[in-house]
Design goal:
Blueprint lengths: L16 E3 L4 E2 H15 L7 E6 L9 E3 L10 E7 L2 E7 L3 H9 L6 E2 L12 E8 L5 H17 L5 E4 L5 E6 L6 H18 L4 E2 L11 E3 L26 E2 L18 H8 L17
Parallel strand pairs: 11-12
Antiparallel strand pairs: 1-2, 3-4, 3-6, 3-7, 5-6, 8-10, 8-12, 9-10, 9-13
Helix pairs in contact: 1-2
């Protein structure tokens, strides 16, 4: 990878341990993101990102940063009005910005669901499935497969990825003509069908205390300004798991920590980018 002149001199503390048990360092994380840049690039370009900084690694405190008022030369920002102030969101349009974010302590990459040219119109619908203990990943798989069946009935192509944490994300690429209120309502309606079919397995209950033992279908993830861990984003968890696209056929055999910064690049060499068709797919949302 060719980086801009003077950029490397800005990188600090590359030997800092980010994952104590595994010994992975900040430099290891930079190495992973440098290698995955060609694949992750189209899912980040032109999208505002929220920075989640772990300056002491996964066992330390973390904090959120949206506003980047004085970025270095290689970081492009996008001013967005938020109530009574302007937030200058970073956009990861080049590899230098991605590595810069890691240098700040960012482990995950959290882009918006919409791009700078269509901020009010998302590129895809997201089904965010989160199993709440004692529910487990296999419960989320069951719900995901049921959602997939409904989407097939509606003639909608969908793309699953393991979140890298405990759950599953399903992407449905759409035309850039639907507002977030419409996409959120679409997920809510599909969720209601699932909940009616599997009342003991699924929920959209807002109160966390009432989700126990069920898979939470989060339609509120589809709101302007919300972010989700990007495809190929590392997660700040033991083992350095990666949010990884999988096929519907292999999903039942997956587990949350199946792919990591150690194994992901080898996987992509073998299977390529399973989300690639999503990038050019513009589907119409049917009425439910």
């Amino acid at each position: 990878m060719i980086l801009q002149t003077g950029f490397k001199n800005s990188l600090k503390n590359l030997n800092k341990i980010f994952w104590p048990d595994e010994g992975y360092t900040k430099g290891d994380l930079m190495h992973y993101y440098s290698g995955i840049w060609p694949l992750i690039k189209p899912y980040l370009e032109g999208r505002p990102v929220s920075l989640v900084r772990y300056p002491e690694g996964i066992t330390g405190n973390f904090f959120y940063q949206k506003d980047v008022p004085e970025p270095p030369a290689w970081v492009e920002t996008l001013p967005i009005v938020n109530r009574d102030r302007i937030i200058h969101y970073a956009m990861i349009n080049n590899p230098e910005t991605l590595i810069w974010s890691v240098n700040l302590g960012c482990i995950e990459v959290h882009p918006w669901l919409s791009t700078r040219s269509t901020l009010d119109y998302p590129s895809y619908v997201i089904f965010d499935l989160d199993p709440m203990e004692p529910a487990v990943f296999s419960d989320a798989v069951q719900i995901a497969l049921s959602i997939h069946a409904i989407l097939n009935e509606l003639h909608l192509k969908s793309f699953p990825k393991i979140s890298g944490a405990t759950g599953i994300h399903i992407y449905v690429p759409i035309q850039n003509c639907y507002r977030f209120e419409q996409t959120s309502d679409f997920v809510k309606k599909i969720g209601a069908i699932i909940i009616q079919a599997f009342p003991e397995k699924a929920t959209n209950e807002r109160k966390v205390s009432q989700r126990s033992g069920k898979v939470y279908i989060d339609h509120l993830q589809n709101i302007r300004g919300k972010t989700i861990a990007a495809v190929y984003s590392v997660r700040p968890l033991p083992g350095a798991p990666v949010s990884t696209p999988v096929s519907w056929e292999e999903l039942p055999d997956c587990h949350p920590a199946m792919f990591s910064i150690e194994s992901l690049l080898k996987r992509t060499e073998k299977v390529g980018d399973l989300f690639y068709p999503l990038l050019s797919m513009k589907q119409e949302l049917p009425k439910i």
